[in-house]
Write a structure and sequence with these properties.
207 residues; alpha/beta; Maf protein; seven-stranded mixed beta sheet; 7 strands
């Protein structure tokens, strides 16, 4: 069995490595902003599937399993992707401050030989504390917003302004691990480590 992660995200790679399953990384290069008018759950499921299948089409090795994932932020039904510049990042953080938004991640696990696949979507609610203009400006100086859906990364400076998280913490990072384990085992890939224990040890969170 050959396992491939169709994502260049450093945190997705770190999370997947906790399963102690050998894997390689091959980015899909799928354009992520082509469905921004649809429902969040549909968008992330579609993009995760497209990413996994784009890599699967290039595979010739028997028993190759590909994991595709896509994460987006939603506020009052509005999809919020990655900011193109500092101005967009400032506008996004201004919208999220003091409010509750949703993190949606779609995961697709596909076998390249048979095209058998499973697709799941995970939602987590995140509430930010209010932020004044000075705090927003200080945050923007970190540049942690660059290339991040919702203009932030949970494991960065922004965690100081997080009031509450309801749902999977690893989903906010971009790869809901307990859901992924269930999907892999459904595809015949067995995980022998205690994932909950490892997440508690490394992140202080069970999922």
């Amino acid at each position: 069995m050959k396992l491939i992660l169709a994502s260049g995200s450093e945190w997705r790679k770190r999370l997947l490595s906790l399963l102690e399953l050998p894997f390689t990384v091959q980015e899909s290069r799928v354009k992520e902003d082509q469905f921004d008018w649809e429902e969040a759950s549909e968008v992330v499921a579609t993009l995760a599937t497209m990413k996994a299948e784009a890599v699967a089409k290039k595979m010739t090795d028997e028993g190759t399993i590909i994991i595709g994932a896509d994460t987006m932020v939603s506020l009052d039904g509005e999809l919020i992707g990655k900011p193109a510049n500092r101005q967009e990042a400032k506008a996004i953080i201004g919208k999220l401050a003091g409010r509750t938004h949703e993190i949606w991640t779609g995961i697709c696990v596909v076998e390249a030989d048979t095209w058998e696949r499973v697709v799941e979507v995970e939602k987590t609610e995140v509430t930010f504390r209010p932020m004044n203009e000075w705090q927003v400006e200080q945050y923007l100086k970190t540049k942690e917003w660059e290339g991040k859906a919702g203009a932030y990364q949970m494991h960065g400076v922004i965690k100081e302004y997080v009031k509450d998280i309801v749902g999977s913490y690893t989903n906010v990072i971009g790869l809901p691990m307990l859901t992924l384990v269930e999907m892999l085992e459904e595809m015949g890939v067995w995980v022998e480590v205690d994932v909950t224990e490892r997440l508690n040890k490394i992140l202080g969170k069970p999922n």
